[in-house]
Amino acid sequence: MFDISIYDKMSLNDRYDTMLTSLEGLISGDESDLTKLCNAAALINALISDLNWCGFYIYSNNELVLGPFQGMPACTKIKVEAGVCGKAASTKETIVVEDVHSFEGHIACDSASNSELVVPIVKDDNLIGVLDLDSFKVGRFSNSEKIYLEKAVEVLNKYINWEHIISAF
């Protein structure tokens, strides 16, 4: 059983450190890789405050295809280089956008989104997809979230066989 209340009184760094440990525990088993990715989206969504969307887009056939997520229904396909997700995918660099309404070419899947953080998932220099987080708060994401979510992607790369995920898309 998962009890989120254990995180309530932790400092932000302790909370995020524990999130990484919990993530590793959730996905290090023999479950399917898709199940691992579903649990990763749920855990991150539960432990990063003030989100209205958290999930994955998987790179397939030269575009990003919607994968496991938590939140409102989302865009099902995003062209590489389009929007924040596509830009992060094309540059293979994390992007933090304080106000998505000032980001040229922003794709509004959920009208409640005001800020965004996108971490590319890259393994052996190959683009796998992106981890995308949206918040209803302008300026929600700090360098702490950037650093810890990049570390979360490292944990995912350690335990997920991305070929199993990509073949499903």
From TrEMBL:
<protein>
    <submittedName>
        <fullName>Free methionine-R-sulfoxide reductase</fullName>
        <ecNumber>1.8.4.14</ecNumber>
    </submittedName>
</protein>
<dbReference type="Pfam" id="PF01590">
    <property type="entry name" value="GAF"/>
</dbReference>
<feature type="domain" description="GAF">
    <location>
        <begin position="46"/>
        <end position="147"/>
    </location>
</feature>
<dbReference type="InterPro" id="IPR000614">
    <property type="entry name" value="FRMsr_CS"/>
</dbReference>
<dbReference type="InterPro" id="IPR029016">
    <property type="entry name" value="GAF-like_dom_sf"/>
</dbReference>
<dbReference type="InterPro" id="IPR051330">
    <property type="entry name" value="Phosphatase_reg/MetRdx"/>
</dbReference>
<dbReference type="GO" id="GO:0033745">
    <property type="term" value="F:L-methionine-(R)-S-oxide reductase activity"/>
</dbReference>
<dbReference type="GO" id="GO:0005829">
    <property type="term" value="C:cytosol"/>
</dbReference>
<keyword id="KW-0560">Oxidoreductase</keyword>
<comment type="similarity">
    <text>Belongs to the free Met sulfoxide reductase family.</text>
</comment>
<dbReference type="InterPro" id="IPR003018">
    <property type="entry name" value="GAF"/>
</dbReference>
